[in-house]
């Protein structure tokens, strides 16, 4: 069994040093019952967005769309290759409202098995968990909390994610609803289910700019993802640099990740949407980070930290 750390992309495993400049949380394809008419389902548009990201200096994207939300698993490798950008795909399961009651019922009780299969063997068709697998494998597990807490669904999915993590060493990315319940998530995953905190990525923390919670999560050892500058309706965007600066001053620059979280076609800029889309992360936000926090912090946030957050030993699988 090899102890080498690798990052699992849709085109195969790579060394962490090959990942490069990374958008740590975004979406190339996404279909949600809560976002009717705003699906990301066009491979041509996905390639255009990725190429624009690459033109701004991007080399990798973590695609957090989990099972059941229209990942277009069979097209991810093609899109990655066409744009020349590494793509990390996600297994996992979102809130039931996003996936729909019928699909949730079909996978209930078999989530851990599904997650491990997608990490080790290949991604399944989103509409049919029993369909043959594709060749692209997931490189992370995506789960979701509830608003200011963890409901029964969240606990069940996180328990399955922890089981899959222990079988594979895969990192677990957590959607925090409104940026809340970060400490509840860590209490469940890390204290009760024995997932090492450095294998947990907490997302959307910019939506709840509670500096004390941010600091506690960083002190615990989790990675903190501030994502969503492409979602312009989030009024907390203007606090982002202050939140990052506070964490850097507290000695936690090595815990920070940034992502675009483009979830609707309207949020893309390259295909006629309002934008600003994935390129905004590097064309606008990275220069601000460099100017206000320094080049060393910017390199940590966009290169070094993602390479550590998404690397795994895969337990020989």
UniProtKB/TrEMBL annotation:
<dbReference type="Pfam" id="PF02126">
    <property type="entry name" value="PTE"/>
</dbReference>
<dbReference type="InterPro" id="IPR001559">
    <property type="entry name" value="Phosphotriesterase"/>
</dbReference>
<comment type="similarity">
    <text>Belongs to the metallo-dependent hydrolases superfamily. Phosphotriesterase family.</text>
</comment>
<feature type="modified residue" description="N6-carboxylysine">
    <location>
        <position position="142"/>
    </location>
</feature>
<protein>
    <submittedName>
        <fullName>Phosphotriesterase</fullName>
    </submittedName>
</protein>
<keyword id="KW-0479">Metal-binding</keyword>
<dbReference type="InterPro" id="IPR032466">
    <property type="entry name" value="Metal_Hydrolase"/>
</dbReference>
<keyword id="KW-0378">Hydrolase</keyword>
């Amino acid at each position: 069994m090899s102890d080498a750390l690798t990052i699992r992309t849709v085109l195969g495993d790579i060394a962490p040093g090959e990942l490069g400049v990374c958008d740590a949380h975004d979406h190339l394809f996404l279909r949600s019952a809560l976002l009717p008419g705003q699906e990301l389902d066009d491979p041509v548009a996905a390639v255009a967005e990725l190429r624009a990201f690459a033109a701004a200096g991007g080399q990798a994207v973590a695609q957090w769309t989990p099972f059941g939300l229209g990942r277009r698993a069979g097209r991810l490798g093609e899109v990655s290759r066409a744009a020349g950008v590494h793509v990390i795909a996600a297994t996992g399961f979102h809130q039931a409202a996003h996936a729909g009651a019928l699909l949730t019922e079909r996978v209930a009780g078999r989530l851990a098995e599904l997650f491990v299969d997608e990490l080790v063997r290949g991604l399944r068709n989103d509409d049919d968990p029993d369909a043959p697998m594709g060749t692209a494998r997931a490189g992370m597990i995506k789960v979701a909390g509830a608003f200011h807490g963890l409901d029964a669904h969240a606990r069940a999915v996180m328990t399955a994610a922890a089981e899959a993590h222990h079988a594979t060493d895969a990192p677990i990315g957590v959607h925090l609803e409104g940026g809340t319940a970060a400490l509840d998530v860590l209490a469940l995953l890390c204290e009760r289910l024995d997932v090492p905190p450095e294998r947990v990525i907490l997302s959307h923390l910019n939506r709840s700019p509670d500096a004390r919670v941010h600091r506690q999560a960083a002190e615990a050892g989790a990675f903190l993802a501030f994502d969503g500058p492409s979602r312009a309706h989030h009024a907390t965007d203007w606090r982002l640099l202050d939140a990052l600066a506070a964490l850097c001053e507290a000695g936690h620059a090595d815990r920070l990740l940034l992502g675009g979280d483009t979830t609707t076609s309207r949020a893309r800029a390259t295909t006629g949407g309002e934008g600003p889309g994935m390129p905004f992360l590097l064309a606008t936000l990275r220069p601000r980070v460099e100017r206000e926090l320094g080049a060393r912090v910017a390199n940590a946030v966009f290169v070094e930290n993602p390479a550590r957050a998404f690397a795994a030993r895969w337990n020989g699988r």
